[in-house]
C-alpha cells in the first residue's frame, strides 16, 4: 500500500486524476493510462513507418549530424519512450494479473516502475554514447528467442480458453512486443547505421534473418495496434453494423501500413 500511497501524493498535483483515483480507484487510472498510451503508441508507429519509408530516407545517410542524431531529436525520442515503456510494462502486469492470476498488485507496480526507470536510464545512456556497433544477428537472435519463448508460454496457457481467436492473439502479440519493442528502441541507438540506413552490409543469411525479425515485429505491432484501436472505439458503439464497419476500416488502414512497412523492410 505504501507504493500506491506515494503515487497518490504525486497524483494530488493533478486534481482531475486524483479525483478519479479516489472515487473510482487506482485500477481506473491505470486502465485509462494504458488506453491513452496505447493510442500514442499507434500514432508513433504510424509516424515511424511513414518517416522511414519516405524518399528522403532512401540511400545511405550519416546518422550523426542529421536531425535524428541531434541532441534535441534524441531528447524527443527519449521522452517518447516514456508512454511506450509504460504501455509495454503495464501490459506485462496485466498479463500476470489476467492470465496467471498474480494478485500481488503492490509488488507488480513496484517492479513495473523500477524496471521502467532502469530501462529509460539505459536507453538514455545508449543514446548519449551513440553507435556501439552491435551485431544485428546476435542482438536479434537473443531478443527473438526470448520473445518467442514468452509468447509460447502465454499462448499455451490461454489457447483453450473460451475467448475469441482475436482476443488470444492480442494477448500473445502483447507478450511478443513486451520484449521486441524495448529491444527495437535500444537497437535504434546501439547500431543506428544499421537500423536507419538502407543497403547496410551484413552477410546475406544474416540480412534475411534480420528482415524476418523486422517482419514479425511489424506484423505483431500492427495487429496489436489495430485490435487495440478497434476494441477501444467499439466500446462506444452499440450498433453491430458500426462495429463491423470499424473493423473493416481498421483492417484496411493496417494493411496499408503493413504494405508500406514490408516495402521498407525489403529495401534493407
CATH-derived topology: 3 helical TM bundles of succinate and fumarate reductases
Helix-strand string = HHHHHHHHHH
Strand-residue fraction? Answer: under 5%
Count the strands? 0
Give the count of helical stretches: 10
CATH class: Mainly Alpha
The amount of helix comes to over 70%
**Main sheet makeup:** none
Q: Give the total of domains.
A: 1
What is Rg?
Answer: 20 Å
Seen as an oligomer or otherwise, the chain set is: single chain
Structural class: mainly alpha
Q: Which ranges are low-confidence, i.e. pLDDT below 50, for 5 or more consecutive residues?
A: 58-68
Distance between the termini: 50 Å
Shape: globular
Which CATH architecture is right? Up-down Bundle
Mean pLDDT value: 82
Detailed description of the structure:
Helices cover about 80% and strands about 0% of the residues. The protein is mostly helical. The chain has a single domain, classed as 3 helical TM bundles of succinate and fumarate reductases. Helix 2 (about 15-25) packs across helix 3, helix 5 packs parallel to helix 7 (about 165-190) and helix 6 packs across helix 9 (about 205-235). The chain is globular. The termini are far apart.
Q: What secondary-structure arrangement, pairings included, does this model have?
A:
Blueprint: H1 2-11, H2 15-24, H3 26-52, H4 71-98, H5 105-129, H6 136-158, H7 165-190, H8 192-196, H9 204-234, H10 240-266
